[in-house]
Amino acid sequence: MTDDTDDTGKPRREITARRTVVLGTLAAAVTGVAAGAAPIVPLGGHAPGHVMLAAGEGEGEGEGEGGEGEGGEGAALDPEAALMRDLGFMQGHLRAGLALYEAGDLDAARTHMGHPIKEKYDAVAAPLAERGLDRLKAGISALADAAEAETPMAGIAPLYDRVAATIDEARAGASMTHRIGGLIALTRVAGDEYTAGTAGGRIANLHEYQDSWGFLQVVRDQLVKIAGDGDADIATVATRMLDALKATDAVFGDLQGQGSFDMDPGAIYGAAARMEFAAVRLK
Q: Is this model's pTM higher than 0.85 or not?
């Protein structure tokens, strides 16, 4: 990204990053996260043969279809794992939008909530239709329309929860290997977005920094759910993956890119690599 404005048309903010991490107010209470999960915080090799993970697929042309994205070379990804990644991609935009909406940044929130349909839905339309879940498009559109209309948060939250429930229904039809593979791939997309959103120790594109945050929230929430799955081996894998994500705590400030934090996309890519290593236990 080389222009001087973000997707909302506002000048990009340049904020120098420092060491310790501070997170602003978030939308934890209305996001449908599994009961008992810890408070929401910023999260931050070779693939196992049964899941060929994307080495770097970012937002942009070809992204979502195994092509090259902004972050670097694309690699083959199992179609079912790609669907899991792409569902998380859409939900991550909504998560960022929801938190921004709650914080009162309605312009940025509306932009994020409009992106799942514009950027990704065509890539997931066919497999969702096969599952009888093509209602997801109408659900996301209703949420985006409500945000455009500046509906109070009390009306936005249930619309998000309905979308999240449909996405979870789509995930339920996938194997655990594909679900985990999709989360690792989404973590790499978060690294790509963070790389595009930061440059020279400064925020270069606030929108993409926020995307990265939203994607990692989805990864974390899904791993918390998987860890409570009841299968001891799967719970062990998910717990180890959650431990790997802790290394990314230090690379986010608040959603406006303010606060003191390490600006290091390598922490996100490193977490993805450690998550992949943990997932080798899956058969």
A: no
